[in-house]
Amino acid sequence: MLSRRVIWRVAAGVAASSILGLAPWQAAQAQAYPNKPIKMIVPFPAGGTTDIVARLVAQRMSESMGQPVLVDNRGGAGGAIGADLVAKAAPDGYTILMHNITFPISSVAQTLARTSPFNVETDFAGISIAVYVPFVLTSHPSVPAKDLRELAALLRSNKSLQYNYGSTGPGSAMHVLGESFKREAKVDMEHIAFKGAAPMKQELLSGRLQIGGDQLSSSLTEIKAGTLKVLATTASKRIAPLPDVPTVRELGFPALELEGWNGLFAPARTPKDVIDRLQREVALAVRHPDLVKRFADLGAEGVGSTPAEQDAILRRQMDQFRGVIRDMKLE
Q1: How far is CA 271 from its chain centroid?
Q2: Which of 78, 183, 256, 265 has its CA 20 to 30 A from that of 176?
Q3: What is the distance between the alpha carbons of residues 5 and 314, in angstroms, rounded to a whole number?
Q4: pLDDT, tens only, 96-145
Q5: Does 125 lie in the same domain as 67?
Q6: Number of compact structural domains in the chain
Q7: Containing domain of residue 273, as a range?
Q8: What is the pTM of this model?
Q9: At residue 42, what are phi and psi to the nearest 5 degrees?
Q10: Does an H or E element contain 281, and which?
Q11: Is residue 3 a part of any domain in this protein?
């Protein structure tokens, strides 16, 4: 009969050989998750809503998970550069993506154009919608229109006006909304693409850019200070931080209605137990009293949805704009 020591050595050798036979990410996953820092990619420059939300959530997750969650800004190509890094990362839960409403919309545009390096429906695993953040359309104060309806009338009555509108990149949410507005209002504006909301906002504040739009959090301070003007919100109902601002539907542009959000994604094939752990951590983070107050100050609302709920939102918004993008040839 084998001694206990011999049996233990044999078992240990089998376990070691099994782990050595796994891919590196699988071997790491065989240990308790997480056992090293997690990288949270933000596909936009620092200073925008997605970056703000990511840093708040990452800090709280770091404290509860016992490992640093490090925000890494990788801006460019309307968010595609950062998203592609995550799509091609090891599916082990150590590289995740914080994105926003632009993700499904830009992915449709890039897929139709056959220029996308990834497929949002097959290359990512949803984790959670972290927060809802209203999307607002803004202008420089010098624009003589109090809302989107007046802007349309102004541009129709004065064909010599050469207004530009900005977005966070080709196929982004604001790009689609801007082109939709031009078509619905029968007006003309020039599209200017930026790497993120922060550089676009700087051009708006300077007056070199007349029209812009982004999630409320990135411009609420300037709106309250009067250095930016709100023309409309794309939400389905008026929002608490700006109760006097009408919705696009109220102003006669229902096709521009769009609910804004920020959510987390992992590479496809990330193990379900890792996804579930991350989802629980996101939900705990956004419901923490400190973050609830911080989000309220930003005009945001913590959500912490399940992956299935997140997938349903993405598919609905992709279907909503697929035909519009194809018709407008944004690709």
Answers
A1: 23
A2: 265
A3: 55
A4: 999 998 898 877 877 776 677 888 889 999 999 999 999 999 999 999 99
A5: yes
A6: 2
A7: 37-133+260-328
A8: 0.81
A9: -110, 115
A10: helix 272-286
A11: no
